[in-house]
Amino acid sequence: MTRRIAALSACCVVPLALASCASSPKRDAVTGAASDFVTALAGGDGGGACALLTEQARASASGATNTPCAQAIVSIKPSGRTVSGVQVWGDAAQVRMGTDVLFLRLIDGRWLISAAGCKPQPKGPYDCTVES
Amino acid sequence: MKGPGRFVKENALTLAFLVLLLGALIGQSITGVAEFNAQQLSSGGQQISWAGYLISSSFAVDVAENWQSEYLQFTLYIFATVWLVQRGSSESKKADEIGTQSDEQQKIGPHAEPTSPAWAKAGGWRAAVYGRSLGAVMALFFIGSWLAQSIAGRAAYNHDQLTQNEDPVSWAGYVGSSEFWNRTLQNWQSEFLAVASMAAFAIYLRQRGSPESKPVGAPHDATGEES
Description:
The complex is a heterodimer. By secondary structure, chain A is α+β, with helices and mostly antiparallel strands. Chain A is built from five helices and five strands. Chain B is mostly helical.
């Protein structure tokens, strides 16, 4: 049997893995984007809220009926602005705010909402009013 | 032959496989970033650079899951061949040599030779530690790689979870998940197959000039050194 010689130790992999973990500025940026979105919704600013959505989420908000995003998005009623949890993994994030759950993606250096108005399901993904 | 030429010749086996390792890692990273970016496109995410992919959890978990299984293979093989034999295999010792053998057979302490390593000559705890250093280091590398797989795997898995509007999981949750064990076991089974195949094939098949084989003319029932 060929005796393979170890050249690199496994400890080299750990920093690579940790590099993908969320840093504090990243969490702050994610929380800020989610807060801006909820603030816009709470103030009835549909246009402002839509500007914070990803392209796919904006299309999803308009739906099959082609209702303008700004008009459709205000159907989502935020339950509060207290952040109870933030998870950031690479270019994807989740923010728990009040009883709401928001999903975000990092697009061109900006955190945008990719799914909102999400309700947990017994199994599988959240059922979201607006999603990518 | 002197200088670098001699060094290369005397270490050709190690150097050749280090070059192959580097080549394979580069190839894996190039194909990996293409696959990763295709997934990003379908999930509405950003494209990443090759350099960005090299420090990503996605690349790290793919590397670590293969490393841990290789180190496990050699760790088990090193320990198993102390106690288990395969009659007729060049990979095995003879049936009457099962176990850790005597100090005389292992050239330890007063039985050491002038060229024996210092800790083998010293005997006592130093010889005990040194006498298990190969298996111990391989085992440490296995545990380290497997731990790295779990950490990087969780990061990659949670990224995928979030892009599919699902909750991320804890480290313990990931280590108990089917994703983690599927990645792990699909590597382990191939390593166990390779060891079993090598031990058995070496009974009847030969590779002229290779120390991994018995001499071409050695009988099938000749085991280990006796061939």
